[in-house]
Amino acid sequence: MSRSEDYGYAVARIRAMEPMLLDSGAIQRLLEADDTAGALKVLGETCYAKSLAEKGAQERYDAALEAELLSTVMELRAFVPDKGLVDLFRIQYDFHNVKVLLKSSILAKRGGKKRWELMTGLGTVPTDSLVVSVESEDYNLLPYGLSSLIPAALALWEQTRDIVEVEKLLDSGLFAAMLKEAEGFDEPGVLKWVKARIDSENFRNLLRLKRFGVGAQKAASFLHAGGTVSVDALVQLLPEPFESWGRALSHFDVGGVISGVQDDGDFDRQIVALEKALDDYCRDVVSLARYSQNAPENVLAYLWGKEMEIKNIRTVLVSKGASAGRDETRRMLRNGY
């Protein structure tokens, strides 16, 4: 599969793209804008200008942000030696689209409206093809195990009428597919990034499960195998106070991340702080690749950096619309690339 020595040209291209990312000064100007319109005006002076103009800044900034990320994904895919490395980043969006389609199918049977507009073009499977596959119940050509997962998810819905169970099944399929793809690259850094993604999802879930007093047996079904911390070890943390989790996991890199999150008694602030710390952790896992001129992980580092940049922009824009304070908004922002 991918070999580090083949990535010298790709990394050089990525270095040339780095100035297009927003620096801390640009994010600060967004924060200092008086309102959403002011923030969009600032954004219109950056590389996002074209996407904002094409999609309509005020009415559809979400579409503009997605278009910008898709443009970046396709630009990298054009010169990366192994396109599968870019597609590894995109798998999450295929599973998002499947969730949208299945929920729409369920709603339609109840007389509701299909919400295909919630699908994204960021996945590897064209949305039109995915719609045809689901509508015709012909899943044979779908990748990443979806050919068996989709009928299994539909059967599970018929048995349980529980959409949470369906989502759990699909989420497990997502991380299993990402692990399988990562293992095929024979690049430790790529696999480490996927494991960090699984750890992040597990700890987000674990804190919420603890908050609502979910028992260990039920909690285990919300957690995913394949991370650096096993499901059994995670479940054992449930009865322990959150502030002790970091110490219990001190021999894992993610333990330091957990230790840095304070429990001040406000669950909403705590979960926001944890999610930010975990996103930064995923960045840190591949950030060392930037010191290498031929590490394939540079591809994931750039894509993750762009995705977090867009998450920061969306956070600022939403906060402006809700008239949230700047300090509160700043605490939610992820570290830059």
Features:
Topoisomerase I, Chain A, domain 4; mainly alpha; V-type ATP synthase subunit C fold; 17 helices; 0% strand; 3 domains
State the CATH class of the largest domain.
Mainly Alpha
- Write the element-wise H/E pattern from the N-terminal end onward: HHHHHHHHHHHHHHHHH
Give a short account of the largest sheet.
none
**Count the helices. How many?**
17
Q: β content, as a range? A: under 5%
**Ends distance:** 27 Å
Mean pLDDT, rounded to whole units?
93
Global morphology: globular
From the coordinates shown, what is the CATH architecture of the largest domain?
Answer: Up-down Bundle
The helix fraction, in percent, is: 55-70%
From the alpha-carbon coordinates, what is the Rg to the nearest angstrom? Answer: 20 Å
CATH topology of the largest domain: V-type ATP synthase subunit C fold
Structural class: mainly alpha
* Strand tally: 0
Supply the number of structural domains: 3
Low-confidence residue ranges: none
How would you summarize this macromolecular structure in one to three sentences?
The protein has helices at residues 8-17, 24-32, 36-43, 49-55, 61-79, 83-109, 127-136, 146-160, 163-183, 188-211, 216-220, 231-237, 245-248, 253-259, 267-287, 297-321, 326-332. With 337 residues, it is mainly α.
